[in-house]
Specification:
mainly alpha, 13 helices, about 300 residues, single chain
């Protein structure tokens, strides 16, 4: 009788816990499925879309297999390796899950960094590209012919972006829409100014060559100002790194000069707590410094 009562009590606890989990999940099912789709197919579609902007043609299946292999495959390999080396499968499982999460999330920031680097290269080539456009128009060439000259003379990514505009125009897309698509693919202020200037002058009439020269002067001034700002940012970043690393440097000096006193700091509970608090304060301070020196240009 007592065993039956205990069994019913255990089953009752399981049922209550199950209901506590099931009811919120059922009420938020749509949001949950949307989140799961965004974290799976959404990540794959994001990667494919950004790779297309980088002019990298890849099949969806390869991206899917790559994500699965990097996350599940890598996580399983980490779990098996650490499990056999340490014989502690709980720690191996935790580390494997952490690796799985990082491996699944890391492609996005890597691709975003690739996009950012491409935009920087495009911005650095705009002065030469607009100068060629201006010279071509002065020589009597049309806008598509001047764009073709830039495609032939300039390296990527400018040649790729302008070449894509010409391809779109050849299949019947209006040139104004081609320029607008360029502004969407490369969302830079200088590029928006260039596209807006071209489209407005093509509608109202005007001297495109002089407009390109004016835009080139503006871009050069912006680049000069941006370089000055980057110098100050680099100086602040270096100061932040030095300040954040000073506690570790001082700790290393004390450890080599008086190791007995430093060992207590890592073995006594109070010392461990002080180290954790100090590390958190140091991390927060470094994060604040990064935000201060992060000047938008």
């Amino acid at each position: 009788m007592d065993a039956i009562v205990r069994l019913l009590g255990q089953n009752g606890i399981v049922i209550i816990i199950g209901l506590m989990v099931f009811i919120p999940v059922f009420r938020k099912a749509n949001k949950l499925f949307t989140w799961i789709e965004d974290q799976t197919f959404g990540t794959r579609n994001f990667i494919i879309e950004k790779l297309n902007l980088l002019f990298i043609d890849i099949k969806e299946e390869k991206v899917t297999y790559g994500l699965i292999g990097l996350s599940f495959g890598g996580g399983s390999l980490v779990i098996i390796s650490i499990g056999f080396l340490t014989s502690n499968w709980i720690v191996a499982l935790v580390i494997g899950l952490i690796f799985f999460f990082i491996a699944f999330k890391i492609p996005k920031p890597i691709i975003n960094q690739m996009i950012k680097k491409r935009h920087q290269m495009y911005a650095s080539q705009m002065v030469d590209a607009l100068t060629l456009l201006s010279n071509g128009i002065r020589a009597g060439l049309s806008v598509p012919q001047s764009l073709g000259m830039v495609v032939d003379e300039m390296p990527g990514p400018v040649s790729q972006e302008f070449g894509l505009m010409l391809q779109q125009n050849k299949i019947g897309v209006p040139l104004e829409e081609c320029f607008e698509n360029l502004a969407v693919r490369v969302p830079l202020e200088d590029n928006d100014m260039f596209v807006s200037g071209v489209n407005i002058l093509r509608e109202t009439g005007g001297n495109l060559a002089e407009t390109f020269d004016t835009i080139v002067d503006v871009i050069r001034e912006r680049v000069r100002l941006k370089q000055k700002v980057e110098q100050f940012v680099a100086q602040g970043m270096f100061q932040g790194i030095v300040i954040a690393g000073m506690p570790f440097g001082i700790g290393a000096i004390y450890f080599f000069t008086d190791p007995d006193s430093m060992i207590k700091l890592f073995t006594h509970p109070l010392g461990i707590a002080m180290c954790v608090v100090a590390f958190l304060f140091d991390a927060v301070g470094f994060f604040v410094i990064l935000k201060i020196v992060d000047i938008k240009t």
